[in-house]
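Illustration: Prenyltransferase/squalene oxidase-like repeat protein.
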Amino acid sequence: MFEQGRPLDRARLRFHFESGPARVVLDELVSYQNDDGGFGHALEPDLRTPVSSAVATWCACTVLHEIGAGVDEPLVRLAVGYLVDTYDAAERRWWIVPPETEDSPRAPWWTYADIGRTFDGCLLNPTAGLAGALWEYRELVPPALLADLTEAVLTRLEGGVDGLSRSDLTAAELFAGARNLPDAARLRALDAMRRAAARLVENRPEAWTEYLLQPLDVAHTPDSPLSPAVDRSSIAANLDYLLDRQLPDGSWPLTWSWAEVDADAWLLAERDAKGIVAVDRLLTLRAYGRL
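Result:
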């Protein structure tokens, strides 16, 4: 991490493992924020555009949730303002990336013309995650917007359990875990998510080198709300797998690549993504007593 990781992820590592201050994490995160309040600048490593996007702003909101950032932070207020301003009330969603995505290096799944098909109209990814971000800071959000958006997310989760994708489930995690989300809404979301997780999690170790949902991607910690959907023996096997797969430089191999599209840009994205993954893996291993 200290040789290759981004300053932001080094600050996250210190926050979690060395009692580092949340202020340092915020100071690093703000470097990715634009004047419109949204985030860009490759905060999502596979999307190298400096322009603000819903997905990069969702990435920022997951960090804000992680460190418990308060509603009085200027960075938070600007981010919420961006989300309110860019929300499509008619469709009850955020479009995950802007057209300017095409002007910078990116993974092929971020091709703007294909976004609607790739992300199923963006109805859950990133919309569910950003709805959770708004619940974190509900004091800054018009109540009518929040109520309408919340019901839309819940209806989509409950109505689409059999069709939810890995990215839908990941987006919904911030929603279900959001501070201030009413208990009734949280229970509805978790019921749908657990049923989807039981279907989506891949339990075969031989398949874990592929880009799919591993047990620990759902059961991040023993008390994660989705952990009951995962077989305990699969969790134990996945922990062994993580320890076995760590590379000599301390990182973990990624399960995706777009080197064939832009080899130079991929090298930057891979390095950045490995830093994010390393912090997340260490947190999971610590939670299960495996460090």
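Reading the tokens back as a structure: Residues 110 and 272 are 17 Å apart (CA to CA).
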